[in-house]
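INTERNAL TRANSFER SHEET
From: sequence group
To: structure group
Subject: JmjC domain-containing protein

Please process the attached sequence and return the structure record in the designated field. Keep the field labels unchanged so the import script can parse them.
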Amino acid sequence: MDSRSRGLKGKSTFLKNGIIKGQDVARHIAATLRQHDIKADASSRRGSRTQGHGHGRGTKRRLSQLEEDAQLPQPSSSIQINDVSVLNNLLPMPQEPVPDDAMSPAHDGTTSPGTTSPGTNDPFEGALTPLGSELALPTFGNPRHEDCAPEVSPNTSEHADATLDQPEGHDSTDTMTLPSLIDGLEGPQFPPGTEQVTWANGVRSFLPWAFVEGKYTQDIDVARAMATAPDALNPADGGEPLVYTLDIQSMCQDSIHPSTEDSITVVGLIKEKLSKGIPVLVRGFKLPGTQYKFDRRSLELCKGSLRNTVEYQDAKKRMEYDLKHARLVKERKATAEFLATPPVVHSENTLGEFIDMATRPGTQRRPKVCGNLLDSYAPSHVGTPWFIAALNEQYLAMYQNRMTDFAFPPPDTEEARKLLEQAARIAGPQLLHPDTFQLVMWDLLTHAGFVSHTHHDAGGAATWMAIRDGVKFWTLLKVRTEGLKTRKAVQDRFDTAAKTSLHQLVNDCNMVEWIGTVCLVPGDVLIQPPNIMHCVYTPIKTLATGGHFYCYNLCHLTELSCDIDRLYGDVTTNQSHPATQRLIHNLALALPNLADKTLPRVPFLALALMVLDSKTYEAPTKGLGSAQYYPDGRYHREVAGETAYAQQVVTAVLKGNRITSDVNKIREMVHKRLGGELLDPGKSRINLSCLKKFVFVEIKRPKTL
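Return from structure group:
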């Protein structure tokens, strides 16, 4: 909570559950009209500008912002309203004497999830609901495994009330704005009759709707299991939250344009948590730049064209493959060729068609589609949060390496010598795999009802995710590794966890150490450490922006993730990043620039292992549509050269710190850390001062290249 919110805490003009006193009608209407883009006079536009940097989404911040607009003139003299129904929707609840039975369900100001208020002739009844069909969502309320079985009911015309009570003693700054997940979605986004589920926080949403020939599919099971998962932010046992929540408003004087000191503090705290395998949730941060929505107008501006073809995950095709796979395995008819062939679960349409399909009801001739446009390349990186930019250490490393050409020379011919002379005039790498910059930031467009099954993100990367428009339920799992005696046993455990149904994992204490769900809405930025398992349900069409990054302090988690995918990448992850190895090697190449620093010992040893034993950690690329390069071309010569020179750097650091450079012994040091040590970066540090006078030794071109 920032100083403005604290200063106004005692004089808030809002009553419990968002009911507004009569004297605040003018301010409420003016502020709400700004949300609905209704034209106002200059004074009203001045009020709109005060909200232009609306960083916080907490209830108190939103309410105190309205109080700052207290000097706005009465809207009756300045706002043109042509639709009386709009005005009715904006009026607050009138203050009337509370009836004697005020505590009865019919008069307590709330309704149970999935039900509506009793009928009334009061024209102001429920007048707060039309604020963008929003409801005030408290964080998940302390469910336990045995108490939080989701309530599932066939769909009716009833829907969740617009306001949910906060638990007693719950600070309203923890609340967040959530679009309705029921109102108006049946028909456009969900087929009529789709079942509903009540989540542990009391919010009701539709379940996944895609079926194959009327057969029940595991997507519904996954969503139901996610709904039973405990709160990742407020554990029922009163212990440490599973996700660390960072209130950026209270840590920075200006959360959009922070000072150097504030930036160092915030980024340092995020790194510390991530290095221990703890996800971080930044609340109240609006992405800079244009505020895009999931609609044609926004996405044409964002992507440049709606006619461009996109390839997306198709829920129905995925279900068809899963059912076929299960049937053939059960009947023992699954051939080696079938099992080795990547499933075809994608469809193609233009971007405009994909957008339209999100809200287009299905017909017999044109069935409804449920799709997920994964990792849609972001043409602009303007929306990158400043704390994410500071965590992109692989990009900082490539910047530091920009003046050095590590490429091996071409074959020794007269033409090759001329090429070499020309290349000598150009410093730095000349060819980069598209994945090098595409993985840093991407957009995620998802239709309502899509489920992403349990996986960890590919390439050993850390991940950030911000919601622009819509909602995502994000369930995080920490796989239990205590008692496992070998790295192979750890790899097998993650493989088993990825194959096991989420319904079983929720209640399997032997397989999962903890599990929790976070509801992500606009203003949230979730930052995941490498290798954390998660699954996602999208209950309403959603546009999100995210990306991947690599950090020195997280390399022990990156190595673990890549080592798991080396054996089970076809099961444990849903993507591949061919640029991973080059980005990791650039971290090593940039170390001489950090000769006045120290690094955590365990993450550095993991980095050294990935560099010295580079072939073991190569990312899989077969059948993934990855860019291909001529074997003797410059791209491969650059990659091979960077690997060889990166090995020089890590070897020098190992020698300077009196650590063996034997790959097998380094692997043993890294892989023997099991159980509670698996995610721990440790306290010992590596001194990089040995690199102050480091000079690369020229390596001749290998004959095998």
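Handover comment: The two ends are 58 Å apart (CA to CA). Residues 1-150, 153-175 have pLDDT under 50 and may be disordered.
Transfer complete.
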